[in-house]
Amino acid sequence: MPAARPLIMVSGCLMGLGCRYDGQIIAAPDCGAELARLAAIWLPFCPEQLGGLATPRPAADLVGGDGAAVLAGRARVVTREGTDVTAAFRHGAEQVLAMARAQAVTAVFLKARSPSCGLTPAMGVTAALLARHGFRLREF
Questions:
Q1: Residue 79 backbone phi and psi in degrees, to 5
Q2: For position 14, what pLDDT does the model report?
Q3: 133 to 6, 31, 62, 99, 115: CA distances (angstroms)
Q4: Alpha-carbon distance 140 to 95, whole Å?
Q5: 81 CB burial (10 A radius; 0-12, 13-18, 19+)
Q6: What backbone torsions phi and psi does residue 128 show, to the nearest 5 degrees?
Q7: 125-132 and 86-102 helices cross at what angle (nearest 10)?
Q8: Which residue among 56, 99, 115, 126 is the one 20 to 30 A from 79 at the CA level?
Q9: Residues 111-139 pLDDT 10s
Q10: What's the gap between Cα 138 and its chain centre?
């Protein structure tokens, strides 16, 4: 019996889905080649949509710390118009974690420079929650 192919979760915007905050589909880095090399099955996700936010939606930023600080209640996620969307970002992160656990995900490919998914310049809310639970993260 052949070994099961690994299941990798991928930020939906990296896979060409129109889930980016502004609804735009952007030319994504070639993470498809790496997925093919891994012979993986991929599962796209968008924590902001899973948290209940619409697309398009106002851009948001981490305020007062990174995603780990948001999870600890020491920082917030706020739109550029000043609306606090911390609860939606936290809820979306929890939904992604539940999906990753339920599907026995082996790794997660994340969108860079995102208040949800980014690892740099600051770790996003979803990235921080997944890292806390031991998931292997890769940023594109």
A1: -70, 165
A2: 84
A3: 18, 23, 21, 13, 18
A4: 21
A5: exposed
A6: -65, -40
A7: 40
A8: 99
A9: 999 999 999 889 999 999 999 999 999 99
A10: 11
Contact 113, 140 (CB under 8 A): no
Residue type, 120: T
pLDDT digit string, tens, across residues 51-98: 999 999 999 999 999 999 999 999 999 999 999 999 999 999 999 999
- In angstroms, the CA 17 to CA 13 distance is 5
Query: CA–CA separation, 140 vs 138, rounded Å?
Result: 7
- Give whole-number Cα distances, 29 to 16, 41, 69, in Å: 10, 18, 28
Tokens 């993986």 -> residue? 40
Section 13-40 average pLDDT: 75
